[in-house]
């Protein structure tokens, strides 16, 4: 595979420089950038939740929600609601924040909910609470719909006591890093420690793709899945709905993906913001190139979180808790992580459309997964640039009246 460690050369220079020059001639780049919010849309209320969480002992339940909202979620959809009680917090899914055909069974949504539950539980210990987490049981719905009512997926019971977890200190520092990773490899001992974070080995497994042939097969399947998604008009539309590419969208929604979190670097990020918004098809074509030339370049360390049953509700929530735990552990040690879940997304799409499970069979056979079913795929390494925080809704915005 061609080694390219930075994505800037892959962006169309003619398109980039031509667009920037036109804007400069039209009336002064500095004035234009300020008018578009290019220079200031990484500040203000949409990012305030990252500093709102204090994690101090004696804090009330709303402080636990401040930790929960900083969790990872697919496309930063933040698909959670919380009911606060004196002795517990009930966690609800919010179907209105579904990715639709990108996530037809709500599998990724519930992984995100598991991430929020993990943040909440870790923060509770540090704040002097002992928690007992009760996860929902059953299976994910056959077809997920935005019209469905919120559903309680977990209850976190709170009692006095508890000990601080070192992972809780990384909650406000964890950011998904989509930029290039350097050549320095994460040592095998770190992978072993990450594996030890799995507390449910009966239903979940972390599979490290350590041999070069395994990583090549993973890369080939991930690129193939990315191509399939990029050609699927419905998946593109549902994905594009969560891009927040203007200051107005950032301020209004406080969720989704912005240019700032794409890993482009500060100069290119500013320049791209000055150009007209690309079409969804163009953005997904660029996504394919970046996946190939950045995310899978340089022989990265890759892994899979696999389940015995990908569509078991409890296992999916536990997979989310595990993924969040892994990211916090890595953050505390200066290691970057990013989901690369195109293969599980295509597996879901094939099932939704009633097609033969071609991607699942090929991926499982190539990587010899046996009975394990992939539900998360990811890369990790030492990032060239630090990750930046994504947009967040405030805790007060996601509290449900009991």
Describe the overall structure.
The chain has 402 residues and is an alpha+beta fold. The protein is 41% helix and 13% strand. The chain has 14 helices and eight strands. It has helices at residues 13-27, 29-36, 49-52, 61-68, 107-126, 188-196, 212-230, 233-240, 247-253, 266-274, 280-295, 313-332, 342-352, 358-367, and strands at 80-84, 88-93, 129-135, 151-160, 204-209, 301-307, 336-339, 373-381. A four-stranded antiparallel β-sheet has the order 1-2-4-3, with helices on one face. It has a four-stranded antiparallel β-sheet with strand order 5-6-8-7, sandwiched between helices. Strand 1 (80-84) and strand 2 (88-93) form a beta hairpin. Helix 4 packs across helix 5. The N and C termini lie far apart (54 Å). The relative contact order is 0.20.
The N- to C-terminal Cα distance equals 54 Å
Main sheet properties:
4 strands, antiparallel
Helix content: 40-55%
Written as H for each helix and E for each strand, in order along the chain, the element string is: HHHHEEHEEHEHHHHHEHEHHE
Count of discrete alpha- or pi-helical segments spanning 4 or more residues: 14
Strand order of the largest sheet: 1-2-4-3
Key terms for this structure?
402 residues; alpha+beta; four-stranded antiparallel sheet; 41% helix; 13% strand; disordered N terminus
